[in-house]
Amino acid sequence: VFLLFTPVGAIETTGTNILYTSEVQDKMLRVLSSAVLEPGEYGLENADFSNIEIGSEIPTYVVENTQLVPSQIHIFPVIDNGVLVSCFYVAEDGNGEIIVNLSKELVDVLNYNIDNQSFCIIYDDVGAYLYSDDSTVFLGMAEGATVDNTLENGVIQSADAGNYINSVVDSVFASLQTTNLSSSAVSLNLTEYLSVLPVPAASGGSISL
User: pLDDT for 38-56, tens place per residue?
Assistant: First the structure.
C-alpha cells in the first residue's frame, strides 16, 4: 500500500531551490542522524555517511479537475553509486513549518521502471504513477483508496488508472517536466554533522522532522 505523504501548503522560497536552503539541509541531516541507527530501514545500509548524495528534485504533479498542477510535495532522491536508495519528501505543514520525511517506500518500484529514463511522478486520489517515455506505470494506491474511488470526473477503476492518467498527461504533455537520476545536486556530510550534534532516538519506519 502506498502511503501518500500529503502536505497542507506549498513552500515559499522566493525563487530559491529549497534543496539549497540551510533549513532544509539541516533537517535532512537531523533525519539522517536518526536513520543511521537503523540504516537498512531507509535503504542506507551501504551508504557512505560522510557523503550522502541528494539528487535534483523529482518533478511531481497532482491531478486537479482533470488537469495536472505542480505538487506541493518536493521529492529528492538519495543516490548511492548512481542508484536510487531512498527519497526525501519536503513540504510545509498547516503552521508554516517545513517538514522533512525519509522513506524507501517507492525505491524498488521506481528502480524497476525508470531504466535510466527521464521521469516524473503523478498523484491523484487513487494513488501514484510514474510517467516516462510517453507511458504511465501505476506505482501504488494511496492510503484508504479503493478500486472504485469516485473522482471529480467519474469512477476510476484501478485497472484503468493508467489510461485515465495517460489521457490527462496527453492534454498537458508540453508543460510536463521530467528528470533522471544521473547526477548529484548536493552532498551531505552526516559524519561531520554528528561530531557536533548528539544523535536523537530512532523512530523506525519513515522519519519526519
Answer: 999 999 999 999 999 999 8
